[in-house]
Amino acid sequence: MNKKIKWAIPITVLSLTCGVTAGMLAGCGNDDPGAEHTHSYTQWGHDDDGHWKYCPDDNAIDEASREDHIFVAGECECGATKTPVAEKKYGTVTGQVKLHKMGGYDTDYAGLTVDMDDDSVEITVNSSSGAFTVENAEVGKNYTLTVAKSGYQSYSATVLVSEENETVNLGESVLEYEVFDLLEGWDGEYHDFSYVNETEPYIRFKEYTGNPKTLNVLTKDSYKDIKATFKIKYNNSSYNEHTQGILLKFLHSTNPPNPHLS
Ligand SMILES: [Zn+2]
Ligand SMILES: [Zn+2]
Fold first, then answer.
1. Which chain residues have CB less than 5 Å from ligand 1, an ion?
2. How is the chain split into domains, by residue range?
3. Smallest-distance ligand from the CA of 55
4. 70 CA from centroid of ligand 2 (Å)
5. What is the pLDDT of residues 5-39, one digit of tens each?
6. Strands 167-176, 90-101: parallel, antiparallel or unpaired by DSSP?
7. Nearest ligand to the C-alpha of residue 52?
8. How far is the first Cα of the chain from the last one, in angstroms, to the nearest whole number?
């Protein structure tokens, strides 16, 4: 009876120690601790780049087995599958550029450019008619089409081809001729030039908001005759002084300035 109790104590202590440290745990196994483990690389491991074989007993990798996937019908023997690349579909975009200049339309399309900000589309611009065609426009992709010609305000539009082989006709893209230039260094305020091609063209001056400014407007072209109408709002002046004026300066004039105001 006494002998049994005597041996029970060391066994209890030993099992507690094995539960606490990993180093001791190895010695707790039933295998013969002296036997050498031989890896058996029977399992496949893989990631996006390739695959390898490993030993399931201790997860040791056979480095010599690393290689790229070999996909057959979208699947590799390691179990990796190829992510299918969506097949791209294409359509066509067409349009007609109009050059709006001084109440009419200019037909000189030389230097006209059409851009979709994508090198993979094929853009053809007819410099005689102003018509353009964009081939290989990807279905479902939002393009920004920009039409430009020197001397005109460029035109931009969003373009979307929604079905394969669809032809999206944008209709007319009108570029407005830039009649005027602002003389640099005089007035950085915003001015609306969008009415200069209308039947009764005018420039809108932004409402006075700060220090007095002088607006110098130059026409880009030269004209033999010009007619201009100037209007000053009586109530626009500060402190109700109602004092405002217009100073007219004519450049490139062969005669002394003698403007007739209407
Ligand atoms: Zn192993
Ligand atoms: Zn593989």
1. 39, 55, 57-58, 60
2. 90-176, 179-262
3. 1
4. 6
5. 444 434 444 343 444 444 433 444 445 555 689 99
6. parallel
7. 2
8. 133
